[in-house]
Amino acid sequence: MFTSQAYRLLEQTAVAYYNTLPGSEEKLIERVADAEIVINIRSSSRFSERVFSQSPRLRLLSIWGTGTDNVDLAAAAKRGVTVTNTPGVAAVAIAEHSLALMLAIARRLPQLDQETRRGGWPRGEMMLLHGKTLGIIGLGAIGRQFARLGSGIGMRVIASTMHPNPALGIELVALETLLKTADVVSIHLRLSPESSGFIGARELRMMKTSAILINTARGAIVDEGALVEALSARRIAGAGLDVFETEPLPQGHPLTRLSNVVLTPHSAGVSPEVLEAGLQLAVENVWNYLKGKPTNVVAQPASR
């Protein structure tokens, strides 16, 4: 039984609910072709030019989430579709998950757990984070929250951002300086043409051999092949990854064979509280659009 309070706000309208991914572009088109409004929960459903062209009645795509890399925004505007998102609702949850990944790598928690279960009693070989430098790439809502958490455990926090704001009180440095200085590098960028492949072999070579990389943003921001090579050669100490170039992560992927990584299934922002808050805002975006006062708009019809 569907228990979301936000969903109940939609029950007065004609609504079709799907609790499974469409699995293909054709199936997605089949589901949305006659719809005027679509609420999309998972970024794995790609709204391409073809999807928009085959959905002539569509006027609003309300996204649960911040990222829009799964939506052809230019095609949406061309086809007269407004696109909205839910900025900030998962910021605290994703920042907490980034902290968890950082601690798991620094304290070698997966290895210690496994060895202890096998009867071992491993000691040492852990990084103390207090007094170390946390480098944050991107100071949006998530990056700012993680800066607060890092500072809270006694880390020096530095940041590199495309939109610097000295009023935040966070030490801003050039990207190269951050990569060379930080003991932990954490990525908090949106995926865009500018950020795709942002961290590649060159950037990884700049990092300390004792450094940890955290990515809870999007997999394509990091050159995955270069990362595997750097981790395998121990040119960096480890990585905590919640996102990947291909999701779900294919069985037998090289990352799964490395002992110095912690992997989670793009789940950083998935908690009951966040899911409900995100759906609530996605539904509010629908009602505000119908009232003629759209909110959290990331793309609107080109004719406006």
Structural class: alpha/beta
User: What is the CATH topology of the largest domain?
Assistant: Rossmann fold
User: Stretches where pLDDT falls below 50 for ≥5 residues?
Assistant: none
Please give the CATH architecture of the largest domain: 3-Layer(aba) Sandwich
* Tally of individual helices: 11
Task: Write down the domain tally.
Answer: 2
CATH class value of the largest domain = Alpha Beta
Notes on the structure:
The chain folds into 2 domains: 5-88 and 271-299, Rossmann fold, CATH 3.40.50; 91-263, NAD(P)-binding Rossmann-like Domain (Rossmann fold, 3-Layer(aba) Sandwich), CATH 3.40.50.720. The two termini are 41 Å apart. The chain has helices at 5-8, 25-32, 49-53, 73-78, 91-106, 109-117, 141-152, 175-181, 201-206, 224-232, 272-290, and strands at residues 37-40, 60-63, 82-84, 133-137, 156-160, 171-172, 184-187, 212-215, 238-241, 261-263, 297-299. It contains 11 helices and 11 strands. By secondary structure, it is of the alpha/beta class. Helix 5 packs across helix 7 (141-152). Strands 6-5-4-7-8-9-10 form a 7-stranded parallel β-sheet, with helices on both faces. Strands 1-2-3-11 form a 4-stranded mixed β-sheet. The chain is 33% helix and 13% strand.
